[in-house]
């Protein structure tokens, strides 16, 4: 029911906030285009599905669903603590990595504070900043979407509170090499909190890749973000975590809702964490798939950026929008670059061998006809 005389105003900042653009869900494309087979290569999900161990854990927990979940996700916390060689007080489990970004924003940002965000990158960092009336300060990536430590340092002012580093970066697949990360952290003032979003760490194969975890162990002002949504294949159940010095975790816990992570998510994540076979298989499928897509894109003459992640940023140029639409109509969902102000690009998640093959054959058909 629409009413004409509502006098209730939302906060002014909401007028400047753009909602997150998610990858199109499979059911929507099936319905819109009347398709049975739809392949989604749009949200960097694990094409192998969840770990079977996670599914078993969920099953066995179902009879206990009348109980509230553990406030601190203690079982998962203990498992993470052992894996990461970090005390439990240096870890916080969240409702997806996204919630950690919200908690960081709520715990640390005053109106007018500045948040340094490389650009293009994951949109939630700027979203969290705006929500708190803080100011995102975009720092463009250089040629080939490489990070520049000097550019990031030059953007820091008296008001800088947070610096976000997404490495490997979404949507470019590029990363900040280890020695550059160290130089950046050594050069920043200690009052600046650096958020190292290594959601895609498990896919990185470069020898000088650094997920930032060692800096947490050193007690630096660093928060490392991780998620169970990507390589662990649990995007639908919503669970991620942060690692940081205990003092920072204490501040984050102050703004957290008590039961932020549901019981099934806690159990599933703990089981997935222990399933090394599934992790290894997922890594292998991704590495082979990346290669398969590189070869296919090269053969079609479509430029791309080499990726340390489970997606590839391709640059079909003028044809990007047409390609995105045409593939959708054929049941292959990609992510348009428009949301990142990259109208000449599309982002392609790495699928199974079969899915990649289907994508490449639809791409070939499109290139021929356009
Ligand atoms: C997917 C993703 C996350 C976390 O996603 P959740 O599903 O909320 O855990 C965080 N950062 C980046 C860059 C991502 O791509």
Relevant terms:
single chain; 2 domains; histidinol-phosphate transaminase activity; Aspartate Aminotransferase, domain 2; PyrdxlP-dep_Trfase_major; alpha/beta; HisP_aminotrans; pyridoxal phosphate binding
Rg on CA atoms, Å: 21 Å
Given as residue ranges, the uncertain stretches (5+ residues, pLDDT < 50) are none
* Largest beta-sheet characterization: 7 strands, mixed
Shape: globular
Average pLDDT level: 96
Strand order of the largest sheet: 2-8-7-6-5-3-4
Order of helices and strands: HEHHEHEHEHEHEHEEHHHEHEEEH
- Ligand species: pyridoxal-5'-phosphate
Q: How many angstroms separate the termini?
A: 46 Å
Strand content: 5-15%
Helix- and strand-based class?
Answer: alpha/beta
What's the name of the CATH homologous superfamily of the largest domain? Type I PLP-dependent aspartate aminotransferase-like (Major domain)
* Total number of beta strands: 12
CATH architecture designation of the largest domain: 3-Layer(aba) Sandwich
CATH-defined fold name of the largest domain: Aspartate Aminotransferase, domain 2
Q: What is the CATH first-level class name of the largest domain?
A: Alpha Beta
- What is the count of helical runs? 13
Specify the oligomeric state: single chain
Amount of helix: 25-40%
Q: Provide the domain count.
A: 2
EC number: 2.6.1.9
Domain Aminotransferase class I/classII large: 38-361
Pathway: Amino-acid biosynthesis; L-histidine biosynthesis; L-histidine from 5-phospho-alpha-D-ribose 1-diphosphate: step 7/9
Modified residues (N6-(pyridoxal phosphate)lysine): 230
